[in-house]
Amino acid sequence: MRGLITVGAALAGALGGIALGTSPARADGPGAIALSRFEPTPAGDPLFGVPSPFVGGHLVPRAVVVLDHAEDPLSISDGDASSDDRVVVGSQSLLHLGGSLSLWDRLLVSASLPLALAQSGDGPAAAAGGGEPAAPSSPALGDLRLGARIRLLGGERDGLQIGAGAMLHVPTGSSDAYVGEGAVRVTPQLVLGGRTARLVWSVAGGAVMRGSENPSTLAYGGGAAALLWDERLEVGPELRAETMLQGSSLSLTARERVAVEQGTSAELLLGARVRPLPGLVVGAAAGPGLGEAIGTPSFRAVGMVAWAPPAPPPERAESPDPDEDGVSGAADVCPYTYGPKSADARRNGCPVEDQDEDGVADPDDRCPEAAAGGGGGDPARPGCPADQDGDGLPDALDLCPAEKGEAAGGAARPGCPAAPQKPADQDGDGLLDDADACPRERGPASDDAAARGCPARVRVQGEEVVLLSPVVFRVLKNDPAPIDPKSEAVLAEVRDVIEQHPEWTRIEVQAHTDDAGNARFNETLSTARAEAVRRWLVGKGIAAERLVAKGYGSSRPIADNKSAAGREKNRRVQLLVLEKK
């Protein structure tokens, strides 16, 4: 039997000073007992009964409903081995309604109210002289628990976090139903815990100081859970215990007191929690009681459902120079577009808009150094001459736009001379193939042989378009993946390279992140970024059916995420040729 109390034959005499006549032992307002030693953790904590230093976000509300059932939490014996123990409380089922609110990513305030749904048992035996036992009653309201906790050290996903707090039990419960103590209880606590990619753990300890005549206790425990299924499943054990500081008489209800010895109540639970939807948590746990102290059940089962949304990522402060062009604040006429300093206050911080003065702004000009000419140029390539070499084939379809050829030009080389002179210049950038490091992609001449004739920011390596300059995304509240205008130059070169390879019929635009943050969040963010690049390329003339966007989150790192340099390399955009004709 669990929760066994031995009552000596001299009990009535020992308590005679507070007894009246021959009725059960009574005290003048000593309080009662909240029998259950299971205290559900605040809404949002990762374990069932061991609190965590976790505090996530600011003004983030969370709620939880917990149902726990204990078998045989309290029996008493008169010390006679020949007589049966009296089952005071044979079973107890409690419903806990809880909520919490996180503040400033540091402070958590919480509340929990228990309700006894069902209880069974005989109540304590009457003292000498007879009388009816006080059987447990239900439904009955328990003591309201209010809590506050502050995280002193560590962040939400750090391996070591330290927190401190306190719980206050307000005597709102029934003093005759084993769910209320009739007096205030205060429990200061110290909590340690942490979280890694595969494990969450916590240990906690504190003193339960009672305003009633019942003795104070030390409450402590620890637990851990493995994180599985992309952190949507938690499975692990936890052990909780409460030790009475000294032997004493103990109030079971407002009318009955019994003598108890100093002892420890302990329980072991094995539980699992699953998040089937973002914010929704469903869990269950069960395990045995350990020892014979009061309140220790032979078995306890726990079920819970909670609404516990994750903390939103912190908002980044707006930079005084968001385009990083060296012109800050109000002086930058184009604060989100990279541009040089200018003596003209009307153009300070803005890019040169139209180098070839053809009426097409450079960000939209496919040929910023070649005027479109009369007739508006090629409508498929804004800012470009319709037919630079005058061979009757639009430049968009001409593989040799600077070299006059036949309109048919052979199926493999439309717009190129039928019999090109050798050595050839396939990309028409003025550099012969023998001296061109990138013979299929146009680029300027260079003293560097490895870069001669290549685009400044892009290379084609096998089936991949490699970006030598990163695509930068700004952080805006209403747009998860806005492309920074200063990245338009590298994207313009990507667009040109794709146009120079009409044989590429399907290209995958990939986006990758580092491992900071939740894996699902990273996958969503990378997908949005890949789609943003795809939309930009389609908006600049690339056929939509040639491009497919794919976000890989942090699943394909190319460098070590433990360093800032490695994480920066992992935050990247790649393009991979999937199909050719």
From TrEMBL:
Keywords on record: Membrane, Signal
Regions of compositional bias (Acidic residues) in chain numbering: 353-362, 426-436
Pfam families noted in UniProt: OmpA, TSP_3
UniProt GO cellular component terms: membrane
GO terms assigned for molecular function: calcium ion binding
Listed Low complexity bias regions: 409-419
InterPro entries: Bact_OuterMem_StrucFunc, OmpA-like, OmpA-like_sf, Thrombospondin_3-like_rpt, TSP_type-3_rpt
Organism: Sorangium cellulosum
Identification of the protein by name: Porin
A GO biological process held by the record: cell adhesion
Residue ranges of domain OmpA-like in the record: 461-581
Superkingdom field: Bacteria
Hydrolase keyword on record: no
Name of the gene encoding the protein in the UniProt record: hofQ
Region feature (Disordered): 305-450
